[in-house]
Write a structure and sequence with these properties.
The protein contains two helices and 47 strands. It has 671 residues and is mainly beta. It has a 31-stranded antiparallel beta sheet that branches. Strands 4-5-8-9-7-6 form a six-stranded antiparallel beta barrel. It has a two-stranded antiparallel sheet with strand order 36-37. β41 and β42 form a beta hairpin. The longest helix is centred in the N-terminal third of the chain and has 17 residues. The radius of gyration is 35 Å and the shape is extended.
């Protein structure tokens, strides 16, 4: 019923403009003005004011009393409303008016109608009002109120309101209220359902407006087997881009539930989570970002967010980061705290307390064809149990781009000096000096044809990293073990660009090592010949393929492949398949996923199955069906997610009804 008042707003705004502004175009068969300065337009009256149009057979305007009367049926069209009325009048000075038997659409989406609508100052009264996002002749659903009133920037009050679905009354209430402002304190939509551990869950949020720049939400959380909780969210906007969002979750568990079985931790009764996110500028040119996310235990996400993928959260990160800079440099300082949710405890987890990063932006070296930039990272790294200390990592990068006719050569030299202090007993200093360099040479050939052009890019690159002894250095992260390299890679790109947006790209790459071994990540392979890399991407007539594979010359097999193909089936369906296979030295993986989507008229279906072929189990099954009637939609969904580590199934079956862009979700089964 809230949208009924938009009808009156648009109508009276139009009339108000007509009564006060002279540049209004009036067309009619006749216009009369009597001795009392009453103007009467008769016969095919069309009044136009900018994008507003009013049509009727008779329009009467009393210039003295500033009252407009529409004694007969009229049609009105504005930017947001189009419809008709039986008759009506409006007094400009008194700010009052009435409309009888109105019907129309608001924003081209919502249908409204009623027998009577009256405006007195900032209050609107109506009788027999109806509202729906469906056309009334479709009659899928509508809301009807016997009477009611709406006050601007306050609330709508409706009496004897009925919700009808396919003309059948579904819900009745003698009284209904709805705020007509964006922010008003009150109860929000509750959440009722089930989850993995509980057969009944009820969450009731309460929204509280504090002032124009801050508010909070308090949510009670009842779970019949787990217990009772309370969540508080506070939000405040200080200025543009300066904000504070905080959240505290508290939960009191009833007893040692089944979810604590086979865990390496004693059951906890009082569980909590603290979360904060803010952005502020305490000094000129400084921006400070703060984030805190700390749960009471590593199983918090699994137990309280088990109906979503948050249950697989591996870690939380809390930090305070301050950043400044100008056209020449960037400076950043960072206090970073990780909470590892995959380890028995957090004692081995690396913390950066603090880290300072300075970056001197790239610029030209004198007037030479050489560019340089500089990055320095100073970090105090800390583990409760393990190596701690200071690391100073400094990299100077020199680069040169040179053209020899159509040949482009790019040369980079990046000397890197790393210092480690106090990582062992006493004031010891460890150092590492690396000399990485890389040179890439390429050219481009373009052949133009009538329907496409063919681009060929041959490329040769050489990469060198000096060999140094790093075995005694502390391990801060993977950058503390940078492997030596003397590799040459040959790459050939073939690209076909068609005028009808078809596209094909094929990349072939072969590498060789002068060290008789090479690295992929941290894994060492004893061979001169690196795997052959073949990468293909195409999109032709709805068919798409994205594939990359590596062929091992020594083992004579494909060591790794990642491929995705999408195939249209007629014009209503699309089938997609993705395949991943990795034959690593220590661990192998093989997965396949199949997906099908169907769209026919106002029906749609999507299905997805992910299977682990290596360990022979189905990891995820997901299916959704949607029936979209335009003004409302009905969805059915099924999700079965299996975690092989915990050997738990997370199943969800739900029905979702979407009316007025408000989703009502009814979970049936979570197992």
């Amino acid at each position: 019923m809230r949208f009924v008042f938009f009808l009156l707003i648009n109508f009276f705004v139009f009339i108000l403009a007509y009564g006060q502004v002279n540049n209004v175009l009036i067309e009619s068969d006749s216009i009369e003005r009597d001795k009392d300065d009453v103007i009467t337009a008769k016969g095919n009256v069309v009044i136009t004011y900018f994008d507003k149009v009013l049509k009727s057979d008779v329009v009467i305007y009393d210039t003295k009393n500033k009252k407009i009367t529409l004694p007969q049926k009229f049609y009105i069209k504005t930017k947001t409303f189009e419809g008709t009325g039986g008759k009506g009048w409006f007094s400009i000075e008194e700010d009052e008016g009435e409309i009888f038997d109105y019907e129309g659409t608001v924003d081209g989406v919502y249908s409204v109608r009623g027998k009577y609508l009256k405006k007195v100052k900032d209050t609107y009264y109506f009788t027999d009002g109806e509202f729906s996002s469906c056309p009334f002749n479709q009659y899928d659903w509508n809301i009807k109120a016997k009477s009611g009133k709406l006050k601007e920037k306050d609330e709508l009050k409706a009496y004897n309101m009925t919700f009808r679905f396919c003309k059948i009354p579904i819900f009745y209430t003698p009284y209904f209220s709805y705020p007509t402002i964006d922010r008003k304190s009150g109860l929000l939509q509750p959440i009722i359902g089930q989850d993995t551990y509980n057969t009944f869950v009820y969450k009731q949020p309460l929204f509280l407006v504090i002032n124009d720049s801050s508010d909070m939400t308090i949510t009670t959380d009842y779970r019949n087997k787990q217990g009772f909780g309370l969540s508080t969210e506070y939000r405040r906007l200080f200025d543009k881009g300066v904000y504070l969002n905080s959240q505290i979750d508290l939960f009191k568990e009833k007893s040692n539930g089944s979810w604590w079985q086979n865990r390496d931790k004693t059951p906890i009764t009082n569980r909590w989570r603290i979360k904060l996110d803010s952005n502020y500028s305490p000094f000129n040119n400084w921006q400070v970002y703060t984030k805190i996310d700390i749960p009471s235990d590593k199983y918090f996400f699994e137990d309280f967010y088990n109906f979503s993928f948050l249950k697989y959260t591996a870690f939380t990160q809390s930090y305070i980061t301050a950043r400044t800079g100008n056209k020449d440099y960037l400076l950043e300082t960072n206090l970073n705290y990780f909470y590892d949710l995959t380890a028995p405890n957090n004692k081995q987890t690396l913390q950066r307390l603090p880290e300072i990063r300075f970056y001197w932006k790239e610029r030209q070296l004198f007037n030479l064809p050489v560019f340089y930039d500089f990055l320095s990272e100073s970090t105090y790294f800390y583990r409760q149990e393990g190596t701690s200390g200071l690391r100073f990592d400094n990299t100077l990068r020199l680069s040169n781009y040179t053209y020899f006719g159509s040949i482009l050569n790019n040369f980079e030299l990046s000397p890197r000096l790393t210092l480690y202090l106090n990582t062992k007993d006493g004031n010891t200093i460890d150092t590492r000096f690396l000399i990485p360099l890389k040179n890439t040479t390429q050219t481009t050939f373009i052949k133009n044809y009538s329907n496409f052009n063919h681009i060929i890019i041959p490329q040769i690159s050489f990469e060198y990293i000096s060999k140094v002894n790093q075995s005694n250095l502390p391990i801060y992260d993977r950058n503390d073990r940078i492997n030596e390299k003397e590799d040459i890679d040959l790459t050939l790109y073939n690209i076909l660009n068609f005028k009808n947006d078809y596209f094909l790209r094929w990349k072939l790459s072969q590498g060789y090592s002068f060290l008789n071994y090479y690295y992929i990540g941290d894994t060492k392979y004893n061979s001169k010949t690196k795997p052959l890399e073949s990468s293909v991407f195409l999109n032709i007539k709805g068919y798409s393929l994205d594939s990359i594979l590596y062929y091992d010359w020594d083992k004579r097999n494909i060591s790794r492949t990642v491929s995705t193909a999408s195939i249209p089936i007629y014009k209503y369906a699309t089938y997609s398949v993705s395949y991943i296979e990795d034959k690593g030295e220590t661990q192998q993986n093989k997965q396949i996923s199949n997906a099908l989507s169907i769209n026919y008229l106002n029906y749609s279906f999507s299905g997805y199955i992910l299977t682990n072929l290596q360990q022979k189990y189905t990891q995820r099954k997901m299916f959704t069906f949607n029936w979209n009637r335009g003004c409302w939609s009905l969805s059915f969904g099924y999700l079965d997610d299996y975690n092989i580590t915990t050997q738990k199934h997370y199943k969800t079956i739900y029905v979702m009804i979407n009316i007025l862009d408000i989703h009502y979700k009814f979970p049936f089964v979570r197992n």
